[in-house]
Write a structure and sequence with these properties.
The protein is 49% helix and 21% strand. With 160 residues, the chain is an alpha+beta fold. It is elongated and about 60 Å long. The structure holds zinc ion.
Length: 160
């Protein structure tokens, strides 16, 4: 019987210490945020945004072509085939990459590609920790990681 009394007591103890640590975490977080806002380095800001050019999309018959696909891949620093794989999977269609162009089966408006490309950037380019796009993809066995060159974070990503 005295055993259960001890249990309750220790539970209360942990409850309080948990509460205190959450409080101090919030405090630290706010402090960090204040400090971060006060001294965001100029250089970091310059690399924070990727300027992806407007997609050159044209539809002929039942095919849609992005003629500047290689430029986009070069800017986001990813293999065009990797981006293509993501897009075709999301769009449930087939596509080929040929002479810097991506040719999709079917008619698609530009905003479909832009919306998906935005998601691709969020999932496979932008570091989830520091939000900078200066990253590369590393593969280990059957796992893929986004390795950030800015903050050093390693985040697991989906294998396409
Ligand atoms: Zn990072």
């Amino acid at each position: 019987m005295s055993g259960s009394g001890f249990m309750i007591k220790s539970f209360k103890y942990y409850g309080v210490s948990w509460f205190l640590s959450v409080k101090s975490m919030n405090y630290d977080y706010n402090e960090l945020l204040k400090r971060a806002r006060a001294q965001v380095p100029e250089i970091a800001l310059k690399h924070e945004r990727l300027e992806v050019p407007k997609l050159l999309v044209s539809t002929v018959g039942m095919r849609t072509t992005i003629s500047n696909f290689k430029d986009i891949a070069d800017i986001v620093d990813r293999d065009p085939q990797h981006i293509l794989k993501f897009l075709t999977r999301e769009m449930a269609t087939a596509a080929t990459y040929h002479e810097s162009r991506a040719i999709f089966q079917g008619k698609f408006p530009r905003d479909t590609f832009e919306r998906l490309l935005q998601r691709y950037l969020e999932e496979f380019v932008v570091c989830p920790v520091c939000k900078r796009p200066d990253t590369s993809i590393a593969k280990e066995k059957r796992l893929a990681f986004l390795v950030c060159n800015a903050c050093g974070a390693r985040s697991s990503i989906k294998q396409l």
